[in-house]
Write a structure and sequence with these properties.
By secondary structure, the chain is α/β, with parallel strands linked by helices. The protein has 12 helices and 20 strands. An 8-stranded mixed sheet has the order 3-6-2-1-9-11-12-10, with helices on both faces.
Amino acid sequence: MSLIVQKFGGSSVADAEGIKRVARRVVDTQAAGHQVVVVVSAMGDSTDELLDLAAQVSATSDAREMDMLLSAGERISMALLAMAIHGIGASAQSFTGSQAGMITDAIHGKARIIDVSPHRILTAIEKGDVAIVAGFQGMSRESNDITTLGRGGSDTTAVALAAALGADVCEIYTDVDGVYTADPRVVPSAQKIDTISSEEMLEMAASGAKILHLRCVEYARRFGVPLHVRSSFSHNEGTWVLPSPDDQIKIQEGEPLEQPIISGVAHDRSEAKVTVVGVPDIPGKAAEIFGIVAGANTNIDMIVQNVSTHGSGRTDISFTLPIVDGVEALAALGEAQDRVGFETVEYNEKIGKLSLIGAGMRSNPGVSYRFFRALSDAGVNIDMISTSEIRISVVTGADLLDDAVRAVHAAFELDGDATATVYAGSGR
């Protein structure tokens, strides 16, 4: 008997019919001879609706109370799914994140998992029940408070449980048939990728591909959990994310022996650009600035430092960060302005990040030229550039981002003949 962890996103459990469809799928999986653990997100857009309610009652929200509020969405989904499973004659138990043994640090809104003790989950599945777990949440041993893992955290919950339980596979169910060469909502001709390395998937997730959460891919790679990304609206084979080079899927006759140069194009609208202007051009100032931002619990993505103007003794440092962290980062920098000695801070939310990803970049010359030529031909100006061995990323204006994605996708001949199917909403 194999053990399967299945995660269903908000679009899959958006309404009563969706929950009943998921229940039938879960019960069919169990009837096929598998033990099943299910992780669910909040229904549809309910997390956004809770955020809107919080904003209506208070201009500033206490982080602890916000976690208490937002964790309610997943608890509603888990209970309704358990009821739906009971309604078709099977047995299920639902568990909150804390009941499932998801232990985190004490940072509200973006907690990190430090331990998983799934004793109650094991008891449930050994008894023959389906175990249903509320995603996105856990509990801090330090404070005994409910915590949340950040947006997309249900993916991480699912993979963490899969690793702790020794599951054979973690299935991530969404509203498209798998991982595509670009977001099919922006590029309808994008093609589904049958298999992808965790290295490439990490770069795609970090670059804005919303199909999988970055932390979930990191966790799966670290603990060797195979991921199968597929649609809850069809029974089509999805995309397999291989946790290590040793986990190879047999190549079928007629398939190319070498992987494509490029795996896909990702884009991200969730970041803002910060420019610290007039920084004294002396050793240690960059460390001070990034130490201040780190102290505000903010992750930094791309960084560019300009060469100081001759004789001025000052330079500019630009970086990107999540828009949701912008206010705290700006406040922290403002408090430290006199101490660090920079002149001012500029902030721009109207940007977009475009990334080209592919392990084949290592051994194929000319990729950079082709990438920047495509952007030039599309009239897209570039603000920042960042690269790795298998990725090229640029920042441009948000109004140009969709055109840039389509231009690069076409330039690398990633367009398919068929139109990709998006079964439900606009997200996971």
